[in-house]
Amino acid sequence: MGLEVREITKKFGEKTAVDHLSFEMEGPGVFGLLGTNGAGKTTTIRNILGIMQPDEGEALWNGTPITRETLSFGYLPEERGIYMKTKVLEQLIYFGRLRGMKKEDAKKSALRLMERLQVMEYQNTPAEKLSKGNQQKIQLIAAIIHNPQLIFLDEPFSGLDPVNAQVLRNLVKELVAEGKYIILSTHQMETVEEYCENLVILDRGKTLLKGNLKEIKAGYGHTNLVVSAHEDVSNLAQAEGLELFEKRAAETEYKIQGDEMAHRFLRRMTEENIYPLKFEIREPSLQEIFVRKAGESK
Amino acid sequence: MKQILTVFSYTFKEGVRKKAFWISTLVIMVLLGVMCAIPRVMTLFDKGEESAETKTEYSGTCYMADETGVFEKEIPYLKAAYPGMNFKSIEQDEIKGLEKAVDESKSRNVAILSIQEKEAAPVLEITVSNFLSKVQVDTIADACNKIWQSHLLTEKGLEKGEVAVIQTPLIYTEKFIGNMNLTEYIVGLLLTFVMFFAVYYYGYGVAMSISSEKTSRVMETLIISAKPSKILIGKCLAMGTVGLLQLGGLMAFAGFCYKFILPEGFQIAGVDLAVSGFTPKTLIFLIIYFILGYALYAVMNSVCGAAVSKIEDLNSAMMPVSILVIIGFYLGYFTSVMGGGSGALSKLAVYLPISSPFAVPFKLITGEINMQELGISILLLVLAIVIVTTFSVRIYSASVMHYGNRLKWKELKKIKTN
Questions:
Q1: Bridge partner residues of B34 (DSSP)
Q2: DSSP-derived secondary structure for B391-403
Q3: CA-based, 20 to 30 A from B163: which of A147, B9, B90, B369?
Q4: Burial status of residue B178 (CB atoms within 10 A of its CB: 0-12, 13-18, 19 or more)
Q5: Beta strand spans in B316-413 (E)
């Protein structure tokens, strides 16, 4: 039960925007829909929601095809769009009423969410006078004002400052706690690593990777070592055959071939009386996996 | 239905709250008021001018310098032929001085008639202040003509009585089959223009509203809540109601101006301004034609609005519909107002849905259309709206979420809609 996407395919002329995409979301939580710009994420969402009709395949909710009439869903589009000249509360009530809510209920829900997202003082302000981040919050409220079960968030964090991004993160967590199904579409891999248990990665319409995030990462094993120390350990690392991956301000990341290689390096450091502040053996990041997979597919 | 009403209610409120709505309404009201006030002000000045003119010796006088001596003798006849005019005999050398006096006094009630003999026939020169002169030059010339004919005939031996019989004009009466008069013609003409303006302007409003929702991406939020067809219908209904409200307000104000600002007995070219054509029945049909005409073009315009990805492309996207409106308007105008074309062309303009909203209002005011023709015309218009709406909803649904290059017909056919 839950959301099931079966073999969705969408073509625009000769170009295949989404190619036989399938995935399932069996329980509440956040599902990651990843990919670079133009990978087909937004087209996938539009096809699932029925804004566009797929050329092949279908999207089901509890076994029934998804339509506006059969499922209460919410959608925060990637391109922000609200009425700029209209007062915030007024347009939120309009969007709520379009979703079948009574005026009083829509107002109540809008005010509750505005308070939650800290934009209460703008209820009688035209949207054009709000900052981009606050406009984004208003659009998010428009997407969830009717308390939908299934929510699609297309690049929800883009353009938000760290404080507002944290407010939004907390809201997403609350929604998950309330039992909502959230599809998070983004090209920011770190965001997905923070939220998503399951994901699908798209590349030019094709499914590059799909499954449980932990399992995917575990499949690659421990490939990275992050070291931070007062002393320079680069010569030691080179001597032990560690491949430099990335040098950052406070730490250095190396590529390793198994845990044994890392342990050997640690022993060597202690023999040299170098005691690291940080010594972390870890799986590859989603970003690395994506880049590797995308490279393989070419 | 609930969603259509929700879209309707929101769009209507937005429409009447716009500054453009109030500014255009006020500007037209001011223009109407000024246009009606001008004749009243002119009446005041006219009264003043006439009373001043009565004091001057040049008022209502025709000074006549006659070299032939034929006309001087017939001053009583001239006075009888032109009762408002006093005829006085002068010498040719007085003319220059009189012309100067008339020019300085700006009197519009004075004429100087100089009659000189050339090749055994009199040559008349009638001098008046300017083209606004109130002197009826034709009446003076006509009377002089008759005097000269009478002179020639009596010279040939005819008796005065016989000459009078010859010169007696034939009695005739002018009879019109229709009941249209000049002012009804003018009112009908104005209505044709108002209908064209209203259909085009409010239809453009629909296209603009839809294209701004699409280009600002609000459409993406709307479309997941309501079917495109419901959005389209709700919008068209709301903009039409805004238009009807504005037109109704302006018509009511025009009625107020007619009643309270225009001077009583106001005439256009000597004919009383008649609004007798505005019967309740006519008004109802005028409203019906506005609603139907607007609906036909608004639905087409909504497709144009949905077809563009950038607001600046709207005018070029609207070109085909604009051409259709103009063809419809000119067909209606040519056959109704100008009275041109054959009977078949006139009928075509009444029945053709693209032209009937512009052809019928004039005919309604002037009483040139019967109930049977009205019924057929409305039926065809409604049929056209149903067909155009069916196709437009399909195209609108397909194109409203399409961004990038403008959609071609071939692509539209391929797009599946929901």
A1: none
A2: HHHHHHHHHTT--
A3: B90
A4: exposed
A5: none
pLDDT tens, residue by residue, A249-296: 889 999 998 889 999 999 999 998 999 999 999 888 888 888 887 777
CA separation (Å) from B406 to A4, B309, B311, B398, B411?
Answer: 34, 7, 12, 12, 10
d(CA B369, CA B288): 15
Do the Cβ atoms of A73 and B216 come within 8 Å?
A: no
**Per-chain mean pLDDT for chain A:** 88
Kindly tell me the sign of the dihedral angle through the C-alpha atoms of A142, A144, A147, A151.
positive
| Contacts B220 to A, Cβ<8 Å | 51, 75, 77, 79, 81
Report pLDDT for B201.
Answer: 87
Do residue A98 and residue B223 have CB atoms under 8 angstroms apart? no
- b/e for B343-379, b at 16 or more Cβ within 10 A? eeebbbbbbbbbbbbbbbbbbbbbbbbeeebbeebbe
Give me the sheet containing B86-89, strands edge to edge: B86-89, B61-66, B110-118, B121-128
CA dihedral A39, A133, A146, A150 (to 10 degrees): 30
Ordered strands of the A243-247 beta sheet: A243-247, A252-255, A224-228, A278-282
Give the distance from CA A175 to its chain's centroid.
Answer: 15
Q: Inter-axis angle of helices A213-220 and A286-297, to 10 degrees?
A: 70
Burial (CB < 10 A; 0-12, 13-18, 19+), residue A95, is: buried
Can you tell me the mean pLDDT for A195-215? 87
Q: Minimal Cα–Cα distance from A81 to chain B, Å?
A: 4
Rg (CA), chain A: 23
| List of chain B residues whose C-beta atoms are within 8 Å of the C-beta of residue A75 | 220-221, 224
The letter for the amino acid at B283 is L
> A89 burial class (0-12, 13-18, 19+ CB within 10 angstroms)?
buried
- Gap from B306 CA to chain A (nearest CA, Å): 15
Query: Which chain A positions have a beta carbon within 8 Å of B3's beta carbon?
Result: 98
Of B220, B216, B203, B222, nearest to B10 by C-alpha is: B222
Q: Could you write out the DSSP letters of every residue in B42-82?
A: HHHHHHHHHHHHHHSTTTTEEEEEESSSTTGGGHHHHHHHS
| ipTM of this complex | 0.75
CB B329 within 8 A of CB B349: no
Q: Please answer whether residues A263 and A225 qualify as being in contact, where contact means their C-beta atoms are separated by less than 8 angstroms.
A: no
Beta bridge partners of residue A153, listed in sequence order:
A76, A184
H or E element, residue B230? helix B228-256
The span from the CA of B89 to the CA of B70, in Å, is: 12
Higher-pLDDT residue of B368 and A48 is: A48
Task: Give me the residues paired with residue A278 across strands.
Answer: A228
Mean pLDDT for A103-122 is 92
Angle subtended by helix axes B182-215 and B356-366, to nearest 10: 150
A111 phi-psi bin (left φ>0, alpha ψ -120 to 50, beta other) = alpha
Does the structure show a pLDDT above 70 at A35? Answer: yes
- Cα–Cα dist B111/B125, whole Å: 10
DSSP B89: E
pLDDT tens per residue, range A213-227: 888 888 888 888 999
- How many whole angstroms separate alpha carbon A172 and alpha carbon B232? 34
Q: Partners of B271 in the beta sheet? A: B268
Locate all alpha helices (DSSP H) within chain A, ordered by sequence.
41-49, 88-98, 103-116, 132-144, 162-177, 189-195, 213-220, 234-239, 259-271, 286-297
In sign, the C-alpha dihedral spanning A56, A61, A64, A66 is negative
Stretches in chain B below the pLDDT threshold 50: 52-58, 416-418
